[in-house]
Amino acid sequence: MTSSSALDKGLNVSSVLQNAQTQAGQGQQSSSVGNLLAKKAKTPEQIKEAAQGFEAMFLNQMLKPMFDTIKTDEMFGGGEGEDMWKSMMVDTYAKEITKKGGVGIAEQVMQVMIKAQEAGNE
Length: 122
What we know:
The protein is mostly helical. It has helices spanning 13-25, 33-38, 44-68, 79-99, 105-121.
């Protein structure tokens, strides 16, 4: 994890999304949210899917360090196979958390995407 992440700087999700919305309105692209906005999801279902994908990716990045700290019992596990399995498990956890309502990031991203589309249609 890099020290320049939004969490390390004390930023909250709303401020990151607001920044992305401002950049999108100015024709700039933010690294993650801007890329989602650039896809130009046209239907509400596509917007929801893109926003949930962003939240799942975010949760995956937050959960990964937590699972990296869990030590494996050498007698029953470890190795390359477990590392691969663990990354797939974390990805599945992130997707399932998002499907069950997540932590609220997808809803905020959806609102930003809709506002950006409305601004682009004017």
